[in-house]
Design a protein that fits this description.
The structure is a homodimer of 362-residue chains. By secondary structure, chain A is of the alpha/beta class. Helix content of chain A is 43%, strand content 19%. The first copy, chain A, folds into two domains: 241 residues, TIM Barrel, CATH 3.20.20.20; 93 residues, 2-Layer Sandwich (Sulfite Reductase Hemoprotein, domain 1), CATH 3.30.413.10. The relative contact order of chain A is 0.09. At the A-B interface, strand 4, helix 8, helix 9, helix 10 and strand 11 of A face strand 4, helix 8, helix 9, helix 10 and strand 11 of B.
Chain lengths: 362, 362
């Protein structure tokens, strides 16, 4: 008995669909992003949607700031099979215009205001069977909540409940909710705080997380913490100007938090004074050789014996470097003792064999 | 009232010192790493210690796999003022040899075994007033725990308690504890599980976390989650073959989780179809211009009005781009409305003024 049990007890939420992508319930956690072209630039926007598709995104959001954008979005939707979410603020007519063409709408009833207009949008969503994301953002709270609570997690939770109530009063429950702040603590606090109060699926993300490096760290901390709590049904990593990287980081968060088991996981020691081989180069070669493998494989590449044999037990295949020679270990069994320079080629052969086996992806 | 209260309630631990670096209690969370030169390569090891010092590390660990390394470490310690932790396995004589020269020892009593030998080490640590890290690693659990619990968080916790007891039986409590696994879930589960059972400071880290990208994500998730829980007194990001990057990521985790307030925090939107400016380039310029500022400053650079005014309220200084022009906002007050091309130069002027102010670093 080597592997640990999964500590994550995912919180069950009400299921909805954005196009053919299920969200909530027991659905896989989906990954989404947003185009940053002008939406009226139809070929440019379609190119970004395609880039996101090939990067592995499941859903794409597109801004609809005005009527020309709404008209353009209609054309864009006719030219892509990706599920599209229209991002709408203030103007209810934009929602009415795009609802027949998109797979979801993000709007906050509170920033539409008038109840009749909200009812018009919801009737339209019901007619075309599309869900709504209530997207609360700490930077644009309704003033009554900001005045009372400040730009806090509590303010975001109160805003979400208020916006959700608008929809529930219209007997509409095809809802997901986001509560984004530009820092980790308010974001985590808000999602944790709202989770026990509603059963809607959560779209999780840190907003305006900054550039590549800090967004990677902020999003990993916040989304990782929430996912470990079992919170989160769909996610977005927000990064200034980087579409492919957003998806790469989102998928890494899912994999490195242990939620998704696909592909290769390399366990390699940080290198230290006990090192018996050029580990950095060996790991780089293994990483390169295995980057396209979809089979879930744990590969351990360790530079000395202190932890190598132990780590090898949890690995599908492992190298344990020793003085002048080392071991190839498969599922805890030593299968070869070889001179150092023969270890890496042999590991790659063993990986090749393993990836062709029909692995259980459970 | 704009800023949120800090959600982190740091768990108070028993304080110790590694050289002049306090750990636990109310001490700042320190950052450490480990050299990966052969320890017998004295100039090489000193060069890595120096690199870590200039990267911002507080403490450096050095492997002592054999007696020549122990002898070399003595010389290394005489040539550096960095606090040095000797990493020792199996051989008690190595600990006796280095104890007079280093600022801490990491060893697991269970892998020394013989009680008399453990007592010799502890007597030596008492004599030279140096603490011990009990460093449990999921890949090298004592077989009695691995047989019973597998390589699980529970196995790590039991191993830690068993190793701690050896030291407490010798009336030694100058202890910190680590519980590292090569994956996020077991790591987080182990530290959370042990936290209520002892009052010792925790050294937190994911072991063998892999190469730069995945280590950044894994360490951010695991260490970030723990830090948000108030767990962790000193930390290491483990990364195959990257010393400066380890420290950079560790410091980013502390800053982006909101624990450390130093330096500039840039809030920039992910760009979308509402964008009114070349935000990517603007943010890159702000990031470059502010990279050496130590004053805690929140700078917001937003591409449209939807969230810009809200975010600007929590920022020390902000740009909100609009159509053809935009606003400069200081602490929520609009101080200038300027044509787009004048916004960035003005922001940099305002940042310059702010960084010279005597900011409260609380």
């Amino acid at each position: 008995m080597i592997k640990s049990t999964n500590m994550i007890k995912r919180i069950k939420t009400r299921k909805l669909h954005i196009g053919d992508v299920p969200i909530g319930g027991d659905s896989p956690i989906s990954v989404q992003s947003m185009t940053w072209t002008k939406t009226t630039d139809i070929p440019g926007t379609i190119a970004q949607i395609r880039l996101l598709h090939f990067s592995g995104a499941d859903i794409v959001r597109v801004a609809v700031p005005d009527m020309p954008s709404a008209v353009a979005l209609k054309q864009i939707c006719s030219q892509t099979s990706m599920p599209i979410v229209a991002d709408i603020h203030f103007n209810y007519r934009l929602a009415l215009e795009v609802a027949p063409h998109v797979q979801a709408v993000r709007f906050n009833p509170g920033n539409i205001g008038d109840k009749n207009r909200i009812k018009l949008i919801i009737d339209r969503c019901k007619e075309f069977k599309i869900p709504v994301r209530v997207g609360v953002n700490c930077g644009s709270l309704e003033s009554k909540f900001e005045d009372k609570y400040g730009q806090t997690a509590k303010g975001m939770i109160q805003s979400a409940l208020y916006n959700i109530k608008y929809l529930e009063d219209l007997d509409f429950r095809d809802i997901k909710v986001s509560l984004k702040a530009s820092d980790v603590q308010r974001t985590v606090e808000a999602y944790r705080g709202l989770r026990p109060l509603v059963d809607y699926a959560f779209h999780i993300g840190v907003t305006e997380a900054g550039t590549r490096f800090h967004s990677t760290v902020k999003s990993s901390i916040a989304l990782g913490s929430l996912l470990l709590d079992g919170i989160g049904d769909t996610m977005r990593v927000s990064m200034t100007g980087e579409l492919e990287e957003e998806i790469k980081v989102a998928k890494a968060i899912l994999k490195d938090s242990g939620i998704v088991k696909d592909g290769v996981n390399i366990i390699s020691c940080p290198t230290c004074g006990r090192l018996e081989a050029d580990l950095v180069s060996a790991v780089a070669q293994v990483e390169h050789a295995t980057k396209d493998i979809k089979t879930p494989l744990n590969i351990s590449v360790m530079g000395c014996v202190v932890n190598a044999l132990g780590e090898a037990k949890s690995a599908d295949v492992a190298i344990a470097y020793g003085k002048g020679s080392g071991l190839i270990i498969k599922k805890g069994e030593i299968v070869a003792k070889l001179p150092t320079k023969e270890l890496l080629p042999r590991l790659l052969v063993e990986i090749d064999k393993l990836k062709d086996d029909n692995y259980d992806t459970a």
